[in-house]
Write a structure and sequence with these properties.
With about 325 residues, the chain is of the alpha+beta class. It folds into 2 domains: about 220 residues, P-loop containing nucleotide triphosphate hydrolases (Rossmann fold, 3-Layer(aba) Sandwich); about 70 residues, Nucleic acid-binding proteins (OB fold (Dihydrolipoamide Acetyltransferase, E2P), Beta Barrel), CATH 2.40.50. The protein is about 30% helix and about 35% strand. The strands form 4 sheets. A 6-stranded mixed β-sheet has the order 6-7-8-3-9-10, sandwiched between helices. It has a 5-stranded antiparallel β-sheet with strand order 13-17-14-15-16. Strands 2-1-4-5 form a 4-stranded antiparallel β-sheet, with helices on one face. Helix 2 crosses helix 3 and helix 2 runs parallel beside helix 4. It binds adenosine-5'-triphosphate.
Length: about 325
């Protein structure tokens, strides 16, 4: 449901000379939601985020928060805060002073800003390292400090540009759960830019898929994954096959909905990949379309197939999903 507290993009466009980085996008972000802006490199995600933050001017259109246009306000007066990929901590300041920095700029006295900084450091589980310098912290710890520093301004919307990309896979999964917890506890909107589909599916209440400077599809993670509108979204989200059926229409079918059957679409196995709980059987249809069937491990080994073998593929009609052309 739409409320006056929404963050709204209205005909938002960004041009760099002849390059259109963001083209006439319209979107309402529900308050208190975790949103992932997802898309391939160069699709305009970071530019969109930077325009919301106020680090990039708007060429055309408006950014509304609470119904008022914030698109020409300086970053600190927008009600948004941004956490950068590089963390951008001041190397000569302690963790506490890094977090308190923006309050110092506002002229808030030392005792008060330190108390607030300590409160936020506790929130991100860094209270015990408040005296350290950034160079004495691990990457994951620096990131927590950067988060606390962004949150000290009590933003309505926290903007995160690829916040997990510098972390190793183990830490990435841990931090992703932390981000989700923080968003829930704080009850504010997080807009998180990523090019990781898994990350977006795991985190987002709403996934906004961008491609070529426009929003290709937006919806809940389940909706975008299960009902991709376009071939681009189906392929980009992964886990889908795209096939042409008689009549010429294009359909997406999830790989885990495709079965090896006694009759159906004739295909030839091109490769077999064991994935532990299941086996990915890649096949080629007569029209050369590649179709992957994800078969439960036990089922596959009851009747194993090898590359070069002829098979039949089947799926329930209800699982095929028509794509916009
Ligand atoms: N300062 C700039 N000057 C000129 N062109 C730019 C500038 N910043 C971005 N662009 C162009 O705008 C388009 C969108 O860039 P943007 O950084 O928003 O993409 P992105 O989706 O965030 O990509 P990535 O995932 O690689 O960061 C690209 O074609 C890029 O080359």
């Amino acid at each position: 449901m739409r409320t006056t507290q929404d963050l709204e993009l209205v005909h938002l466009t960004k041009r760099y000379g002849d390059t259109v980085a963001v083209r006439d996008i319209n979107h309402v972000f529900a308050p208190q939601s975790y949103v992932c802006l997802l898309g391939p490199s160069g699709c305009g995600k970071s530019t969109t985020l930077r325009m919301i933050a106020g680090h990039e001017s708007v060429s055309e259109g408006a950014i509304l928060l609470d119904g008022s246009d914030i698109s020409t306000l300086p970053p600190a007066r927008r009600g948004t805060a941004m956490m950068f990929q590089s963390y951008a901590l001041f190397p000569h300041l302690s963790v506490r002073d890094n977090v308190a920095f923006s309050l110092k700029m506002k002229g808030i006295d030392k005792a008060q800003r330190h108390a607030k900084a300590d409160e936020l450091l506790e929130l991100v589980d860094m209270g015990h390292l408040a005296e350290r310098l950034p160079a004495q912290l691990s990457g994951g710890q620096q990131q927590r400090v950067a988060l606390a520093r962004a949150l000290i301004t009590e933003p309505r919307v926290l903007l995160l540009d690829e916040p997990l990309s510098a972390l190793d896979p183990f830490l990435r999964i841990r931090m992703r759960a932390e981000l989700k917890r923080l968003q829930r506890e704080l009850g504010i909107t997080f807009i998180h830019v990523t090019h990781g589909q898994d990350e977006a599916l795991a985190l987002a209440d709403e996934v906004v898929v961008m491609n070529n400077a426009v929003i290709e599809q937006a919806g809940s993670a389940r909706e975008v994954f299960n009902a991709p509108k376009t071939e681009f979204v189906a392929r980009f989200m992964g886990g889908h096959n795209v096939v042409s059926l008689p009549g010429g229409a294009r359909y997406a079918i999830r790989s885990d909905a495709v079965r090896l059957a006694d009759d159906g679409h004739a295909a030839t196995v091109t490769s077999v990949e064991y994935q532990g709980d299941r086996v990915a059987v890649t096949t080629r249809l007569a029209d050369e379309t590649e179709v992957v069937a994800l078969v439960a491990e036990e089922q596959f080994f009851a009747l194993p197939k090898s590359p070069g073998e002829a098979v039949c593929l089947a799926w329930d009609e209800g699982r095929q999903h028509r794509l916009q052309s």
